[in-house]
Description:
By secondary structure, the first copy, chain A, is of the alpha/beta class. Helices cover 38% and strands 16% of the residues of chain A. The first copy, chain A, has eight helices and seven strands. In chain A, helix 5 (143-153) runs parallel beside helix 6 (170-183). Chain A is globular. The termini of chain A are far apart. The model of chain A is unreliable at 1-13 and 205-219 (pLDDT under 50). Chains A and B meet through strand 3 and helix 4 of A and strand 3 and helix 4 of B.
Amino acid sequence: MAPRRHNPDLHGNAPDSSPVALLIVDAINDLEFPGGAAMLPRAVRMARRIAALKRRATDLGIPTVYVNDNFGRWRSDFRRTVAHCLDDDVRGKPVVELLVPDENDYFVLKPKHSGFYNTTLDLLLDYLQTETLIITGIATDVCVLFTAADAYMRDMTVIVPSDCVTAVTPAAHRTGLAQMRSALKAKVTSSASIDLARLAHARRRASGGGKRSSRKRAG
Amino acid sequence: MAPRRHNPDLHGNAPDSSPVALLIVDAINDLEFPGGAAMLPRAVRMARRIAALKRRATDLGIPTVYVNDNFGRWRSDFRRTVAHCLDDDVRGKPVVELLVPDENDYFVLKPKHSGFYNTTLDLLLDYLQTETLIITGIATDVCVLFTAADAYMRDMTVIVPSDCVTAVTPAAHRTGLAQMRSALKAKVTSSASIDLARLAHARRRASGGGKRSSRKRAG
Amino acid sequence: MAPRRHNPDLHGNAPDSSPVALLIVDAINDLEFPGGAAMLPRAVRMARRIAALKRRATDLGIPTVYVNDNFGRWRSDFRRTVAHCLDDDVRGKPVVELLVPDENDYFVLKPKHSGFYNTTLDLLLDYLQTETLIITGIATDVCVLFTAADAYMRDMTVIVPSDCVTAVTPAAHRTGLAQMRSALKAKVTSSASIDLARLAHARRRASGGGKRSSRKRAG
Amino acid sequence: MAPRRHNPDLHGNAPDSSPVALLIVDAINDLEFPGGAAMLPRAVRMARRIAALKRRATDLGIPTVYVNDNFGRWRSDFRRTVAHCLDDDVRGKPVVELLVPDENDYFVLKPKHSGFYNTTLDLLLDYLQTETLIITGIATDVCVLFTAADAYMRDMTVIVPSDCVTAVTPAAHRTGLAQMRSALKAKVTSSASIDLARLAHARRRASGGGKRSSRKRAG
């Protein structure tokens, strides 16, 4: 059906296009898996940094996209997954409390490791005309890395704030960061040092068509 | 993260695999578009037939998958779209009332016309080991046809109950049916004549690997 | 590996970007299938028209993309498929003789019906910054229609010269054309009436980012 | 068009299904990029090992798939890329000489880093009913890793013979191997220790449908 064009105002109040977007990968997570208990303190620290980064992003009109596993619960929607993770007896509760989504956030349900695999993320980023992704969340060496690799293949610029990602072990965390730095040419840095204002106001590339065109041309 | 394997019981009570599935395409629809008013009586008749077919399917353990447009509302989840369509002043309300999803139904948000384009549908059907799709909903010649074509390319058997699909005009409806019958080798029939019990208990193909393998081999 | 950037001159002499491209779908075809003999005279007429259209396109710097089935011959490349179709005892020879590819043409091997399904076509069109497709070839109601539908979902403008497509039966041809005209808003017209010069010199859309961005925004 | 079914004999003499396949990624490579000269001796050693592994695989009926970049040459086919790399003044010639494809090998042209991204590889492996991939080639930490990650997301078993992959630097090689071992649960081993006979005769998984189904069910 064609009705999707009839009311452009449905999109809400946040800006509908942005050269940069903040991705939060699998942070809405009950941590109920082997290694989850040992990971919890690091995950809480990570969540505090993501929350701070998200506040700065929101103030600048930079959209946040939750890209989250459904953990096999194909029948659940994202709000229900959030509610589940806020139950008192769930290990991940202190992480998720810090990262409860707002009305203006976007959600993408991902069934596998990469946020781009069999999801709407690619189309959403096209719609938002986004060229740069700040990727945060869990785990540095798996879902964050896989999502970053798929963004890189789509000629997007990838920024990974090292204090806003974590993994089951510190070694896996370091390997993931090294990999993104070397193979994906990702900017790996502290969240505090990311100049969000500059990214938010980046002019789009002027020459020869648009975002995708110029990006893909490089490939 | 790997935790998705830790609790297979999360999937609910409905069977997690089925050789056949019922797809309901864009029936959760406010019909607020040009031609929507003229279409309403036909859409209500369609919804009654889909509801009856869905009851029969559910009794036999056949899963229902709502494959629905988000109509540009990237920030909404499916339950919110349902709620919106049940508002008193929404044209599609009498259609949607007949088709309110149950706890055990699956949802797939589709951003474009085909239910397979940039969505999780393909993976969900793999997970369900589904070989045959009964496709219903709106509109016969656009989203239903596009979804049927993508199912056919994936070597699935497509059944289209002609009383469970409709379009903006009767002529477009007929063209869509003709197209699916001839080009997609779809079985176009009345919903009453579909032998759901036989489809539900179909043995999987025995030879040489499984569903996907055998299906794709034919292609 | 990164070396793909080291030598931009490899692309040949034809312009590497064009707002419009000519697609030739499955015309490199041995026609060795039921209905192929009856179809042959129509296919030869079609091939003559495509050849004339391609000459006009080439003169204007509009690229031609052969999007062709491999007919199960995963081990063959496209030139070998062309060679096979030029064998003396192959039914499709008089068709293929009219459409032998040039050095500057592009090839996309498609394993299924749509030229976009599991192929490089989407990336190639991004690279070419193409917004409008002129789709020709075999068969109007199957591979041409499926390819046109996938182009429409990607917000491309679709033009179908009715004398440059054909199908197993005239009825199937007409249904395919009707479908593309109504559901895909395709421009169905005679090849002679397509103003290639205007299309070749179309300015890209100026506003808000580029091709893909603007296109997808409409969706 | 439907003719792809008319002649199953076109596929050649090699078996058309195999539980395991050998992938050779970007080894058909002119090495004409920064770092290519330093890499050459390692690439030649790698090529010798791949060639030996390929001979053992061929003797057991295990198919080889060349998954190769087109390096921006959209108009070239694979055989032409091979020919280019065999020119006297091309740096990669001693590598490519060792790995010239045979009549029975499969080719997949990949436009980006992963062999699965916008290519026919997924469909080809479905057709071959392959569950295990032995991934070889260039570079360990980029195209090999990306391809391995995409295979892992598709629930395939990944084996990486460490002497059959290489990278621009030894450090990048080691990081890539570590990543595949930890995040993808890949079996990283020497090529000599791979028990090809056992892999070639692996029975397919018996339970609940087939390959894809069982694999994806785990996800």
